[in-house]
Amino acid sequence: SAVQKFHDNKIQTLEHVLLTAHHQNCLTVGVYESAKFLNEYPDGAVLCVLALDEEDEDDAALQIHFKLLQAFCYNNYLDILRVTGMRRLAQLLDETSNRNESRDLHCILVTVSPNASFCSTALQQVARFCEESRHRYECLPHLELQDR
């Protein structure tokens, strides 16, 4: 359907943004690390991705962190979206390969760097999706990443 195609296109765009930022070392990964980064560089991020699967929904501490991050992002006009599909996120960021313990992927910031001309079109498309969702009063735009 047209809606599914639109959704798939948004997912591919987001994955492109995350992969490109990852390769250019423009990602901050982890709830604590992201909060710390935003505290030090409030204008240093262009996108905040909150990742949560069903099994994490009962984690009260995580929900509290998410609410605080969400509030910060809204107050600082930082685009924010929620994704489900932690396994796909780990695949994308290639987290399984060379680490003993996996990183906390519940929060990922796409950060700016002086030479980050990366994927500006893709980033603009994600920003537009976030903005359109806000206009439809969906406070937190949501995309579902699929395992490949």
Automatic annotation (TrEMBL):
Residues 13-95 form the Ribosomal protein eL8/eL30/eS12/Gadd45 domain. GO terms for cellular component: cytoplasm; nucleus. GO terms for biological process: regulation of cell cycle. Belongs to the GADD45 family. This is Growth arrest and DNA-damage-inducible, beta a.
